[in-house]
Input
Amino acid sequence: MHNISTIYSSLYAEAKRLDFHKSITSYAFLSFTIISTLSNNYTSYIFFSLSIISRILIHYQRFQIKRKLDNAHYVQKISMLYDAFGSINFKFEISHFKGSINSWIEKWLIKNESKSSSEYCNFETNNSEKKLILMIQENSFFNFHLYLSAYRRSLINVILFSVPIILLLFVLAPLIFSEVQNESVLIFKLLLVFISAIQLWDEVEKAFIWRISATKMLEIDNQINALDDIATDSLLFVFAKYNMIKISTPPISENLYKKKKERLNEGWLSRQNAM
Output
């Protein structure tokens, strides 16, 4: 039977897989938009249709990713509470999550079960509250660096999207629109430029969410570091704050996590050894 931690990891892995597919669709959308704007007559209409379809698909993918992330974060909360306090009565919720596992997740679970036995360092404490707060701090430490790296990488995407859109708006669009005689053709070409600007804003928004979330994760790390003792109200406040940040933050890529994982593990272990 798959453990709670592994189910969380599998749901998060699927969300990242869907997010990767959304990135591909986003680049396809941008390509279709550029080709449609630069083309005329029947070719322009074909790529206009493909652009609209890909934009609709992006919105559907965003909904799917949000649903998977919500489930993943909910299971992570259960996993952290279970690891800290032992047996907690979440059997009803976990049974439904296990029952809704699809074929892709099932394959992931079979492949990664042995690798996901534990997400955390072995904390030498029998105090459940202290163990939970240390798990939150460890996650906050990792998430701060991962989100910050994701923000820096996402700026590249912003540039990739902004350059062709700026060219369309200020260089090519005036030339194209001056040659368009059909008013309906002009309208849908303007619509394409507007939709492209929306796509650019999506990328900008995602970048700054990562930046804001990284800052908040660092705040949690510092806040926990400054605690002399672990009062129940402080623990509940930090736990709620941590989960709110996680829910509102897009997933990071698997490649980024693999690249940073070993270095972050070393950094966290050096802090633990210094305590």
